[in-house]
From TrEMBL:
This is Short-chain dehydrogenase/reductase 3. Keywords: Lipid metabolism, Membrane, NADP, Oxidoreductase, Transmembrane, Transmembrane helix. Belongs to the short-chain dehydrogenases/reductases (SDR) family. GO terms for molecular function: all-trans-retinol dehydrogenase (NADP+) activity. One of its GO terms (cellular component) is lipid droplet. Pfam families: adh_short. It is found in: Membrane. Its main location: membrane. The keyword NADP applies. Signal peptide: none annotated. Coiled coil: none annotated. Catalyzes the reduction of all-trans-retinal to all-trans-retinol in the presence of NADPH.
Amino acid sequence: MKLLEKIFRTHDNSPLRLIRDLLWTILLVNYEILRSIYKWFIPNERKDIRGEVVLITGTGHGIGREMALRFARLGAKVVCVDINPQSNEETYNMITSELGYAFKYVCDVTDRTAVMALAEKVRKDVGDVDILVNNAGIMPCKPFLQQTEQEIRLLMDINVNANMWLIQAFLPAMVERNHGHIVAMSSIAGLMGLQNLVPYCGSKYAVRGIMEALAIELRCEPRDTSGIKFTTVCPYIVNTGLCKKPRIRFQSLMKVVEPEDAADIIVDAVLRDSLEITVPSIFYYAIRFAYRLIPFTAAAIIINFFDSGLEAHDD
Ligand SMILES: NC(=O)c1ccc[n+]([C@@H]2O[C@H](COP(=O)([O-])OP(=O)(O)OC[C@H]3O[C@@H](n4cnc5c(N)ncnc54)[C@H](O)[C@@H]3O)[C@@H](O)[C@H]2O)c1
């Protein structure tokens, strides 16, 4: 694939060259479509992560804690990172009481200097990080005009900028070894706009954009980076307390997901090197192949019909 990209990367637009490139492009696009269909029916085998270093942010609670427990059960060395020392310690104790291998660090992931210092410490104490899970996030939920500058800046710092600081801290060693995996938590709110979540939606669309652009950029690297994988996760409402007032019209169709179930699905997707998933998976097809193909005004009517989302709340 790298070779093909080098072949295409030219300013030679002679007719012969154009015809050749066009034929190659059609062939490769069809190959990739067929490969995706095949992977849909027969996904990758789950990879073995025994002994690998998995760093997760936001391990003190919710999905982050559940993922930490599951990665540890698979034999990984789990590096738990959270701003809250007590809750992070609880997660650490839960892992070690199951005889899992864990390390704990307190870090505010919005502080770039602290993130770089964390990377240095982790490298010395544990080794190079094989799987980075950018999970820490917050979700203020109220009409856009009621969100303060401070709230919006903090949201962007945690949900977006921290992702970039952590990637800048851990990606270089992954590129050096041509081995690694970056996992990011986006959301269904990163696939469609939702009431009361304007900045949050913006932050989760940004996460998807960062992950997509990074994957494209690494493909263009002169050296082989095919050993670095990317997984973007878009969960629906997960019962962690983050979504305080869910409003669901069709409760049996659109069930709130338990954090344990969400973590099972996410860890499985990471082990299979899935590029992008929704939790549950039905939303992936519903949004990609229905919602995105119709005019926005028609999509808005469907959203009204399902009347599913989050009510505003103060804290
Ligand atoms: N819960 C949901 O319904 C849902 C849905 C879609 C996406 N998500 C995303 O999944 C991720 C996890 O969500 P959750 O529901 O488990 O959240 P949660 O509130 O249960 O846990 C978040 C953890 O992040 C930590 N954290 C917050 N700010 C931090 C900071 N500056 N530095 C370090 N740690 C910090 C918190 O202390 C907490 O332990 C988030 O990115 C969220 O946006 C959640």
